[in-house]
Amino acid sequence: MTLSELDRPPAGVIGQKRAVVSMRHVSKVFSSGTLALSDMSLDVMRGEFISLLGPSGCGKSTALRIIAGLGSPSSGTIDWPSSKINKQGLPEGDVGFVFQEPTLMPWQTVFGNVYLPLRLQGVSKVAARSSIIEALASVGLSEFERAYPRELSGGMKMRVSIARALVTRPKLLLMDEPFAALDEITRQKLNDDVLRLWRDTGITVIFVTHSVFESAFLSSRIVVMKARPGQVFADLPITTPAVRDDHFRTSEAYRAITDGVSHALQDAIMRGEQRS
Amino acid sequence: MSEIAQPRNFSAADAGTDSAVPVLRPERSGSERLLGILVPVGMFVLAILAWHFYVTINQVPRYILPSPADVVGSLLTDWPILLPALLVTLRITFSALLLALLGGVALAILLVQSRWIELALFPFAVILQVTPIIAIAPLLLIYAPDTPTALLICSFLVAFFPILSNMVAGLKSVDHNLLNLYDLYGASRWQTLWYLKIPAAMPFFMAGLRIGGGLALIAAVVAEFAAGSAGQGSGLAFRLLEAQYRLNIPRLFAALLLLTATGVAIFGLTSLVSWLVLHKWHESALKREN
């Protein structure tokens, strides 16, 4: 360890703010030998909405899965400075995960699907009821607790998936290209809803996407990644109005953000191609 | 069966957009449903009538082809002989099916716990499955304490494998992201099995049950042909052979009729169980929405 490293503050503390999770020099080599992620460090501060943006193969989903504990890093560490850690090194109940597909159990009703995280923690159905109702209300599905997934549209299934991730009141919500398979109108509606949830609950979000526009609309910070090997290419703080609505989508400020992010992404893609 | 396989409740269809109002679909019209019953039943009655007139017009002797009336008559007069035989066959079939269900499901769960268990037991499973059971029957007759037990083992072995292999396939068919989700929330092995893998395997299990149920009856009959049991405790297969030797063809048909009815009943019962378990969520039990 060099002197300059000793001078740095401990992982996860920047200024007075505490990080929810902090990645330190994380690399991931798949069994096929592919270097999916190379020396990635990232401090995720409380209340941030971070988008991980990049071309396919840049390791953004891999990074998200490692944070969630779905697969361990080949080297480097994941620290949870403000969470209680279980045996597997995971902050149980502090993390919600939304997959690209709704990933619902078709044999369970909407209620049963949202109950799952609490059920696995041993909470009785009666005790869980108010949390489930609240989570469903927060995504606008109060009427549908007795419906089965097959009775719902794609957007509604995704809302159930989000409600399930929120039911444990996690500190950190991880979303892995959650709306990539949805049509544009549904996706904008869900973007509005996620933004409202983030503002209302103060939850921290890491949002993986390959859409410049989605990331520009949602984020308080955009981390642009490049491929081969997967690395952080640019870390862009976004200052935007508190209220982001349809007017924001057509505003000059929004255009400036998308321009800047687009350029960073273009550079990242070119850099990735030069290496390969 | 088509009537059972189709739930008649309203369903909220995929709305295509993110609309929060489910679209109600009307029920099938009454006349269409009536036709759905009348066509197969009418066809069946016509076939029976054709049989009847063929026999009476051509004056076919009873010992070659009895008329439907002769068969029903024999069913009534020979009932005291046929009923005990039916009960014996039923008992063997259902005991075998029950044992196959318990054994098949338990072994499937054991097999998917570890790749090593699966590898170790795999050769035995394949050998037992590919060997024609009828060829094992003579051996079983030597080793089993009595004939009914031998028949039971035969029938069990035949019904066991479709249930085992379907259950194994089902337990392995779980959506990987759902498994990830269970890991994420720190689910125990038992929780993952009970809440996720077994429900996900249900459609496969039901397919295995339907195949196994039919095969259990077939095996009970075939094994009895091979075993050639006599006198007390003999099943319908033996009565069938006996009727053939005595040229009592109406009784042979009556025994056959009972076997067919048993087969239909087993099919109906397993299909009903399958529908009851799956109709709320699985595609196989749903009406196509277009």
Polypeptide structure, described:
- The complex is a heterodimer of chains A (276) and B (290).
- Chain A is α/β, with parallel strands linked by helices and 276 residues long.
- Chain A has helices at 3-7, 60-68, 110-120, 125-138, 154-166, 184-201, 212-218, 246-249, 252-275, and strands at residues 13-14, 17-29, 35-45, 49-53, 75-79, 95-98, 172-176, 204-209, 221-226, 231-237.
- Chain A has a 6-stranded mixed β-sheet, sandwiched between helices. In chain A, strands 1, 2, 3 and 5 form a 4-stranded antiparallel β-sheet that branches.
- In chain A, a hairpin with a 4-residue loop joins strand 9 (221-226) and strand 10 (231-237).
- The longest helix of chain A is centred in the C-terminal third of the chain and has 24 residues, at 252-275.
- Chain B is flat, with a radius of gyration of 24 Å.
- The chains are: A alpha/beta (276), B mainly alpha (290).
What's the overall geometry of chain B?
flat
Report the major sheet of chain B.
none
CATH topology of the largest domain in chain B: MetI-like fold
- Number of discrete helical segments of chain B: 10
Estimate the helix proportion of chain B, in percent. over 70%
Q: Characterize the overall form of chain A.
A: globular
Report the CATH superfamily of the largest domain in chain B: MetI-like
What is the structural class of chain B?
mainly alpha
Bin the helical content of chain A: 25-40%
CATH architecture of the largest domain in chain B: Orthogonal Bundle
The gyration radius over C-alpha positions of chain A equals 19 Å
Overall radius of gyration of chain B: 24 Å
The fraction of residues assigned to DSSP E strands of chain B is under 5%
Structural class of chain A: alpha/beta
Spans of at least 5 consecutive residues with low confidence of chain A: 1-13
DSSP, total strands of chain B? 0
How many domains make up the 3D coordinates of chain B?
2
- Hey, roughly how much beta strand do the residues of chain A contain? 15-25%
Strand order across the largest sheet of chain A: 6-7-8-4-9-10
Q: What is the fourth-level CATH superfamily of the largest domain in chain A?
A: P-loop containing nucleotide triphosphate hydrolases
Name the CATH class of the largest domain in chain B: Mainly Alpha
